[in-house]
Amino acid sequence: MHRMLAILKDAERRPDLFHWFGPIERSQIESWLRSSGLVIPIDFLELWSQTGGGDLFESETIFRPTSIPSLMPYFVQGDDLAAANDQRTRDGMPKSYFAFHDGLFLSALRLSDQALVTLNDRYEQTAEYASLDEWYLRTLRADFAYRYRLVNAEK
User: Fold this and answer.
1) pLDDT tens by residue, 119-136
2) Which CATH number characterizes residue 74's domain?
3) pTM for the complete prediction?
4) Which has the closest alpha carbon to 141: 6, 3, 4?
């Protein structure tokens, strides 16, 4: 049986904190991945197919897969993966990273091995995570759980 991602559990418990861009058909994501040549961990397929990325807490954005229309009227240009990564690459982020989140810090996929990492403002790696759950629980949830009275998530 497949376990639900911790971020999705929190979104069910506190939907007021998670403003998703809208679900995406898995086949659309897979087609986009093939055309972009991008390889991602399976957890991202689950997250994007159910949510399409979005804004969470007061300051965080998980970018939306590129060229797949959003259902949400407040989707901001630049909140998609291509625009977000183009801008950061122009700003000096090495092409060995693929940013998927921005807010209090920048999060990226290290393309060489699909590890999730956080980067500082000079695009230097500050931490590494083995899964999307580990990344969420040790970063965003750790930063926001007390403020928003999130109950302990089952791992």
Assistant:
1) 999 999 999 999 999 999
2) 3.40.1580.10
3) 0.89
4) 6
